[in-house]
Design a protein that fits this description.
Layout: H1 2-27, H2 53-70, E1 75-82, E2 85-96, E3 101-102, E4 110-111, H3 117-129, H4 160-164, E5 178-179, H5 188-194, H6 211-225, H7 229-238, H8 254-257, E6 263-267, E7 270-274, E8 278-279, E9 289-290, H9 292-303, E10 307-308, E11 311-312, H10 316-323, E12 344-345, E13 354-359, E14 364-370, E15 375-381, H11 386-401, H12 416-423, E16 425-429, H13 439-445, E17 447-452, E18 458-462, E19 465-474, E20 477-480, E21 486-491, E22 497-502, E23 510-512, H14 519-550, H15 557-585, H16 587-592, H17 596-625, H18 630-653
Antiparallel strand pairs: 1-2, 1-15, 2-3, 4-9, 5-8, 6-7, 10-11, 12-13, 13-14, 14-15, 16-17, 16-23, 17-18, 18-19, 19-20, 20-21, 21-22, 22-23
Helix pairs in contact: 1-14, 1-15, 3-6, 3-7, 14-15, 14-18, 15-17, 15-18, 17-18
Length: 658
């Protein structure tokens, strides 16, 4: 019996240690970047011409070769357009490593993720031009014949204007977006009705990126045209723009399947190929497959005010409206990027840039338009390393062809240190689940820890990202040292910072969280809980061994029952932690089809909570009746208290919805 108990405990301890150690290490803020930054070199004043194909190709070849190696990406495709023409459309690396099939910008079909949302918003504006839709009308007015409704949680209704600027106030959710089997794809109406997210704030208040909101807008379009969404955009967007290799169809048509780029991850020095993700909500954009050349045609149409060759997809005024700001995140800092209609503002170097980026588990893309320059660039990669690579490419392209004219000052002004300390804390994205275990994804990966340094700088840390250092431009406005990003803080009536915005990430708002919801507290409580639970398990096994070796009183039935209760509670909480950590690590698979382990974890969390309540009662009995020694009672009390704190933190993570 002891052997089996030891084996079980050993397995749990090993898994928890392996999983919790990197969690603690990555969340802990680093202080290495708090030294005084160096002044960056001045930006060259010479400006290259993006229409010079020879020069542009030479620069791009060098840049992409370095990126593929540095970011462990097998292949990528890029298209650059300017002055109404395609300057360059080129593939780099391999679309399929096994067959050594190279990427061809004209033929290789990529998944582009949410960049495909721009198709949905183009379709919405076509509906506005046709007088079928109005952007300021309650979307429920368009859903009278649909099972989909938006609840009247707040007095203000949700409109297409809110959906197009990601300001509808929905919580974030992935439920219903993906599946494991194409045969399980159901009507869009059914999925939207069954997986409706909660409204968690009034519309028009803050920007918080919403996949559901875009899918809902696409459903509204389909309802008004009484058509299938994918067929509608085929007829009204892809065909007029000669985007012959672009589709939402799943599985891919045979003529495109043979040209599909394989998605890879880089693990242990090798590339691992993956099957394509199956998406269920076309308007959300995930299921869009296309070529770089086709996306070049989409860019040309938008840059030419809706005209492509002899075809017009939108009126010029409509396109200008889509590209202009529709939501301002900070009235006090108008230069801060906000939201155009469906397009994300991505201004850099004082250049007007609008576009979108897209993420799937393996593919990363970005489309950026410079409307005032009549220029655009699109890039897509077939490995997660493309995530940072695409923004680096955007920065490099902007710096090369539209460079910044000034040299930023990196010295903090007087009083900056005190102001920076007052901003210190954790700021969490509003793009987060409020009602499910998916909340753990947002808490852990979408929280910035902000710290002020003695020199007056700010540093920010986020899980999976390096430390960034910021210098104050004016109170509440900070510029990235050595970069072009900007942080802007919003204050309440008492002058306390309540929200934070990032210039380079327009579709997000970060809310300051109370100290007890900070990552440091989370890290401390979970870490202490793991240690406490392991100590109980060690005593659980070691107690009988110790008594056999050294002798001692045999515990009473009540003492034995109380120890068993706390031992079981400890095992349960450790099991719950392991299960949900694994679910987080395998988030995409769990979102597509929840595993039996996750289902078991959802049940075990309530058993663990009930056991914890029982341990609280047992603690009172132990002190009342003098069970064990005083030290034994103290240990039991501390572990029980940590079990309560453990449950509290899991509730803040969404793992234990209380």
């Amino acid at each position: 019996m002891f052997d089996r108990r030891i084996q079980l405990i050993g397995t749990v301890v090993l898994v928890v240690t392996l999983l919790s150690t990197p969690l603690v290490a990555t969340v802990a803020p680093t202080t290495a970047a708090t030294s005084t930054p160096q002044t960056p070199a001045s930006t060259p004043v010479d400006q290259a011409d993006p229409t010079d194909r020879t020069e542009t190709e030479a620069w791009l070849d060098e840049t992409m070769a370095r990126q593929l190696e540095e970011y462990n990406v097998p292949g990528a495709a890029v298209v650059i357009v300017s002055d109404g023409e395609v300057v360059l459309a080129k593939g780099y690396g391999d679309a399929d490593l096994a067959s050594q099939r190279p990427v061809d910008a004209d033929r290789t079909v990529f998944s582009v993720g949410s960049t495909g949302k721009l198709v949905t918003w183009t379709a919405v504006m076509q509906g506005v031009e046709d007088d079928r839709l109005e952007r300021d009308t309650d979307v429920n007015d368009y859903l009278t014949d649909s099972a989909v409704t938006v609840p009247d949680t707040y007095d203000e209704p949700v409109t297409l204007e809110h959906l197009g600027t990601h300001s509808a106030g929905f919580e974030d959710t992935f439920a219903g977006m993906v599946t494991d089997d194409p045969a399980e794809i159901r009507p869009m109406e059914t999925i939207l009705a069954e997986h409706r997210p909660a409204r968690v704030r009034p519309p028009g208040q803050f920007v918080a990126y919403s996949n559901y909101g875009t899918a809902l807008a696409g459903h509204v379009v389909a309802e008004q045209y009484e058509a299938n969404f994918t067929e509608l955009v085929d007829d009204r967007i892809f065909t007029p723009l000669a985007m012959d290799d672009t589709t939402y169809a799943q599985p891919l048509p045979a003529r495109l399947e043979s040209r599909r780029a394989i998605g890879y991850t880089f693990q242990n020095g090798e590339y691992q190929a993956h099957d394509p993700v199956i998406w269920t909500l076309p308007p959300e954009g995930g299921s869009l497959r296309t070529t770089a050349a086709d996306m070049g045609q989409f860019m040309l149409a938008h840059l030419n005010e809706g005209q492509y060759g002899s075809e017009r997809t939108l009126e010029a005024e409509t396109v200008r409206e889509m590209h202009s700001r529709q939501f301002t995140k900070s009235e006090a800092v108008p230069e801060l990027n906000g939201m155009a209609y469906g397009f994300i503002e991505m201004d850099r170097n004082d250049e007007t840039i609008v576009g979108h980026w897209g993420d799937t588990p393996r593919f990363k893309s970005l489309l950026a338009l410079y409307p005032e320059r009549d220029t655009g660039i699109f890039v897509v990669y077939n490995s997660p390393g493309g995530g940072p690579a695409r923004f680096e490419l955007l920065d490099a392209f902007t710096d090369r062809y539209y460079p910044r004219s000034d040299t930023p000052d990196v010295e903090p002004p007087d009083g900056a240190a005190e102001r920076a300390r007052e901003l210190s804390g954790d700021y969490r994205s509003l793009t987060i689940s409020e009602s499910s275990w998916e909340r753990v994804l947002g808490v852990m990966t979408r929280t910035y820890t902000v710290r002020g340094t003695d020199e007056g700088y700010l540093t920010t840390n986020r899980l999976g990202a390096g430390t960034q250092t910021w210098v104050e431009r004016r109170p509440g406005v900070y510029e990235e040292v050595g970069g072009g990003d900007m942080l802007v803080f919003q204050f309440d009536e008492d002058g306390r910072a309540t929200h934070m915005f990032r210039h380079s990430f327009g579709p997000a708002t970060y809310e300051r969280v109370p100290w007890y919801e900070g990552l440091t507290v989370l890290q401390t409580v979970l870490g202490a809980g793991v240690v406490a639970f392991i100590s109980v398990l060690l005593l659980w096994v070691g107690g009988p061994v110790w008594r056999r070796w050294r002798g001692g009183d045999i515990p009473s039935d009540r003492e034995r029952a109380a120890r068993w209760l706390l031992g079981v509670v400890s095992l349960l909480w450790l099991a719950v932690l392991v299960i949900f950590l694994l679910a987080w690590i395998n988030f995409d698979a769990e979102a597509a089809s929840p595993s039996l382990a996750l289902q078991a974890g959802k049940a075990l969390r309530w058993v663990a909570l009930a056991g914890t309540v029982g341990a609280v009662v047992a603690t009172g009995v132990a002190w009342r009746d003098g069970l064990w020694t005083r030290l034994g009672r103290l240990h039991y009390s501390v572990v029980t208290a940590l079990a309560l704190l453990f449950a509290w933190q899991l509730s803040l993570l969404g793992v234990l919805p209380l």
